[in-house]
Specification:
The protein has eleven helices and ten strands. By secondary structure, the protein is an alpha/beta fold. The protein has a single domain, classed as Arginase, Chain A, CATH 3.40.800. It starts with a strand and ends in a 6-residue tail after the last helix. The model has no long low-confidence stretch (mean pLDDT about 95). The structure holds zinc ion (ZN).
Length: about 350
């Protein structure tokens, strides 16, 4: 099998205390879309096993894990103004981190080169010592650290969620072995992600941010992927590409203001699959983050799975005439300037 997928009913058990956009119906919508795409017949289903403490502690502080263990299992409440927990949220959070980790390890040990994990709660806002923005554990960061521990020399994380992954950026800020690339609405929650944020002094510009103005859509994201992400990934040559696969840049998303279509997400996935084939041995693992319009979430997750499962590497469509929003063009150039020649940019 070359493609793996993860879904488990435990991801339905993390339940908001009052109406909230990050709700179990999201996972159900994706599970239905994946079933319609015949994932069982085309991929290897990995169990959503709980992450182990030593895996979590590669990226989170001991005191934070102890705090969560005291507050969360079997209870309900709030970790910040946005981030709720219910009786089984801890089971879901451990399974989300474990699923992301196993997807990464399966890519490295050859069980499945590519994969998609439909997990919740999401992870990319969670910092080493702080829950934030619906996120308890940073699933993709825990997976990246596990990949490094399993022998990957370099890991890249592409974050196409509409929000900046402040947690992932902070966790790997000083780490030259993990390249973090994010495109996101800016200025917007959580506030970080300016083009000038390129990582710690010794990290060799391994943080890359492409902030995009509200209203950006398929053309702007295509430009970010073609002009910045793909060349940077070719320069970095990761052993594995992880994707913080949030679908809240979708045109109808109720939380954000972007205009990406399912075709736009398809193209982003195609670019990453092509680059993964070129420089990462084909290893490409997508882990769900946000996405709050159920129809868009299901459609975008399905096209992403299609790209991962396709027998041949799809060729991304030409980006077409480069008519993109002026503010997006200015930001792209600011990102390139901030990288100052790193990765050939
Ligand atoms: Zn998001």
């Amino acid at each position: 099998m070359t493609v793996a997928w993860v879904f488990d009913d435990v991801f339905l058990a993390h339940r908001p205390l009052s109406p909230h956009p990050e709700r179990p119906e999201r996972a159900r919508a994706i599970a239905e879309a994946l079933a319609a795409a015949d994932v069982d017949g085309r991929g290897l289903r990995l169990p959503a096993r709980p992450a182990k403490s030593d895996e979590i502690l590669r990226v989170h502080r001991t005191a934070y894990l102890e705090d969560l263990l005291r507050q969360v299992p079997g209870r309900q409440g709030w970790l910040d103004a946005d981030t709720y927990f219910s009786e089984r949220s801890w089971d879901a959070a451990l399974a989300a981190a474990g699923a992301a980790t196993d997807l990464a390890l399966a890519a490295l040990d050859g069980r499945a080169l590519r994969g998609f994990a439909a997990v919740r709660p999401p992870g990319h806002h969670a910092e080493a010592d702080r829950a934030m923005g619906f996120c308890l554990l940073n699933n993709v960061a825990i997976a990246a650290a596990a990949a490094r521990a399993a022998g990957a020399a370099r890991v890249a994380i592409v974050d196409w969620d509409v929000h900046h992954g402040n947690g992932t950026q902070a966790i790997f800020w000083d780490d030259p072995t993990v390249l973090y690339l994010s495109s996101h609405q800016y200025p917007f929650y959580p506030g970080s992600g300016a083009a000038s944020e390129t990582g710690g002094a010794g990290a060799g510009r391994t943080t890359i941010n492409v902030p995009l103005p509200a209203g950006a859509g398929d053309a702007e994201y295509a430009a970010a992927f073609d002009e910045v992400f793909a060349p940077a990934l070719r320069g970095f040559r990761p052993d594995l590409i992880l994707v913080s696969a949030g679908f809240d840049a979708y045109e109808n998303d109720p939380l954000a203001g972007m205009r990406v279509t399912a075709d736009g997400y398809r193209r982003m996935a195609e670019v990453l699959r092509q680059v993964a084939d070129e420089v990462a041995g084909g290893r490409l693992a997508c882990v769900l983050e946000g996405g709050y319009d159920l129809h868009g979430l299901a459609a975008c997750a399905a096209v992403t799975f299609e790209v991962l499962a396709a027998p041949e590497t799809p060729r991304p469509a030409p980006a077409g005439p480069a008519r993109i929003l002026e503010a997006a063009r200015a930001n792209l150039e600011a990102t390139k300037r901030a990288l100052a020649g790193a990765w050939g940019l």
